[in-house]
């Protein structure tokens, strides 16, 4: 795994410019990036190229996730608890 790439992704996740996205994507990247394959990291980077408000609305279910982002990464994000910094317990 490329440590430089992981650091860049994690920094980008924490410094979104939209505080709610920072507090969601930062802990998500901290938890999952070291566990992800290169393909999964590619998918996360593609997702993070989208607008913060859109990602946050998809996470909350305020708007439907577009098909191109309705993937394993988005499912993991939707099941993630940013308050604990780990996958949620389903409740």
In short:
This protein has 91 residues and is mainly α.
Mean pLDDT: 94
Structural class: mainly alpha
Q: What portion of the residues fall into strands of 2 or more residues?
A: under 5%
CATH-derived architecture: Orthogonal Bundle
CATH topology: DNA polymerase, domain 1
User: In terms of per-residue confidence, which ranges show pLDDT below 50 for 5 or more consecutive residues?
Assistant: none
Shape descriptor reads: globular
Cα end-to-end separation: 33 Å
Strand order of the largest sheet: 1-2
* Rg value: 12 Å
Provide a count of the helices: 5
Question: At the first level of CATH, what is the class?
Answer: Mainly Alpha
Reported for the largest beta sheet, the result is: 2 strands, antiparallel
Portion of residues within helices: 55-70%
Structural account:
There is one protein chain. By secondary structure, this protein is mostly helical. The chain has one domain (3-83): Flavinator of succinate dehydrogenase (DNA polymerase, domain 1). Helices cover 58% and strands 4% of the residues. It contains 5 helices and 2 strands; from the N terminus they run αααααββ. It has helices spanning 3-14, 19-32, 38-48, 52-60, 72-78, and strands at 80-81, 86-87. It has a two-stranded antiparallel sheet with strand order 1-2. β1 and β2 (86-87) form a beta hairpin. α1 (3-14) packs antiparallel against α2 (19-32). The longest helix is centred in the first third of the chain and has 14 residues, at 19-32. The radius of gyration is 12 Å and the shape is globular. 15% of the residues are buried. The mean pLDDT is 94.
